[in-house]
Amino acid sequence: MFAFAAKKRASAAFALSRYERERIYCAFLSTSSGELRRTSIGIGTSSFENVRWRSRQRRRSRQRTAGDDDAIDSKRFCSSSSSSSSSSSSESSSSSSSSSNRTNNSSAVSNNSSSRSRARNAEDPNFFEAVRLNREICAFESYDGILTHVEENSRKYNGVNVSTAWHRMGKKLTRDLKSFKEFKRDARVLLLEEATVRCMSGLFAGRESSYPWKSAAFADRNGSSGSSSNKSSNNDDIEVNSVQRRHERRPTSVSSKLKAVDAFDAQNVGNILWACAAMMYTPRLQILEKFADIIEENVDKLYPQALSNSLWSFARLKEWNVSRSKQVAELLSQQAMRMLPEVVKDVEKAGGMYEAKDVPFGGFSTQAIGNTLWSVGALRIHPGNMIMDEYLRLATQYHDKFKTQEISNSAWACAMLQHHPGELFLNVLSDTLALRGDECTSQAVSNSLLCLATFGFKLNDSLLNALSGKHARRCNSQDMCNSIWSLAAVDAFDAPLYKELWARVSTMHHSEFVDEGLNMLYHASIMHKDRDDELLLGANQITQKKAHEEPRWLHTVAKKSYDNQTLHNVTLSAFHKHVSSQIRGAFIKNVADEHITEDGAMSIDIALLDHKVAIECDGPSHFEKNLEKSVTHKTILRNRGLERRGWRVLMIPYYEWREVVSNDKHQKYLEDKLATIGITQRENVLGLF
Questions:
Q1: Cα separation, 451 vs 457, whole angstroms
Q2: Which has the closest alpha carbon to 197: 278, 126, 272?
Q3: Does the reported pTM lie above 0.85?
Q4: d(CA 240, CA 234)
Q5: Is 153 a residue whose pLDDT tops 70?
Q6: 414-430: pLDDT as tens digits
Q7: Is the separation of the CB atoms in 161 and 133 below 8 Å?
């Protein structure tokens, strides 16, 4: 009877392998303590016949020893399987190969305890129930089918069933955004959230000592079971050792240093968070708060891919709680910094970066770099120069492995954080746009152009010609604004792409643009007008002024938005107030704070009206984060604009002002600064100092 039951379960296992070509993983409830306990099973298509043949030979060998047939055949199913799962990112869902998964999980679990635990797991009826539920969830073609399954079986779900349900719905709904409103109103989603909360209690719960097969009693029972048990144990040792020898040449990933149960708990957390972020869905029942607490308590148990997915998810869902999302992101960034040496070592061992589709379980991929950098850029959290520089070095060195979206995400993060990526990366970014432009989305192109312009990189003709004729047709409103400002910032006014973009803007209504986009358009028009004013008067100038079309609302609606944000809604910093008080204390007349230029286009921090001197109090935002004394290109554009309007610009960097400690020294410092632009005491009738 036992043999018949074992054969039935084994045949069901192989039927699952034939049916389920995708790798799955599952968990089950402990029968002894009721505590959530996880193991993993990965069933792939590669080496299937070899696994089946080895299992048959092992079964026949053990039957000769008159061992327990039920345990043997159950062991056959488990030992031929290994763990596998994959997290998805902002652009695509990445999965790892089954052979790589077998490698990493074999190294993550100890030899004897792994084999005995797998045999014990297969005997539990909940184990096969979890496999069956997972298979059914993966088979549904629509989110409605998954929710129907949730309604009927959510009480039976374990942690991985919940994770799979969320992950599959995330993939379905990101492809069918029209159904998302119906999804949010569906009451069955609440059942899945309740199952999620129920399964949260077992995450990262330090369950090792509570496992019955790790206890002394179980070990004694195993050791006193007779010669058949001893021989079975020896076979287990041989089996696990052979697996290790078979894969010993593969590089070891970071996850091999973590417990297997923690790795799969991290995978479950990452999958659920990814699904919510991909759908831009904020779950009820305080699930995000609980996940934030779990991550804070167990951040050291996250492997790179789970870490980057969690970071990306909180960045996408930041409107849920901005301050809390930043706290979690800072913690995850610190963990990424601690893992950096091991990550670099793994990359060197592997001989390069893994693509997202090829990364072994727990490994480090190009997707992890793109997601991590995009997340810190979206939250405006600088993770530190070391990790930024190292990630950018890897992106530069192995750029051919990166998707264009991953490179553009990294570039956009550098622009948002004002972290100069280096000339090598900027050259790689420019070449990627020129040579792989067909692979780029309009967002990837506009974000890349924004990075190049932010750091003053001159666009060559080959790049501009490659983008001409295609990019303008694909852009949405924000992509057009980013692209137009970027081209204007590097003086690419004569490029065909610049004219094509303005032609598209002229056909649109101002309500299609957000305020930030309107500001960028008006600023671009100001820079264009400044360039035209420098040209010689004549027919050529008039022709160039009308070289591109401008919408009628540009100098009304867009100008009003620009004035409100740039000129009027300005708050004086403490640094600005201190410098202004020192200047006024020197009995200088006609000093104005936040003075508007005659044409109403620019604002000056402190204006000495009698001398037409613009004093700019430049705080940290006017300098590169990784190059403290290197002025940003935006600051250079500001100075150029003021000089074109006849003002002499005097920059007062925050780090120089901070080094001066007394008021007398501050006045001496200002006197020396004014002397550099030709203002001396003799020019000041009242005696400036």
A1: 9
A2: 272
A3: no
A4: 10
A5: yes
A6: 999 999 999 999 999 99
A7: yes
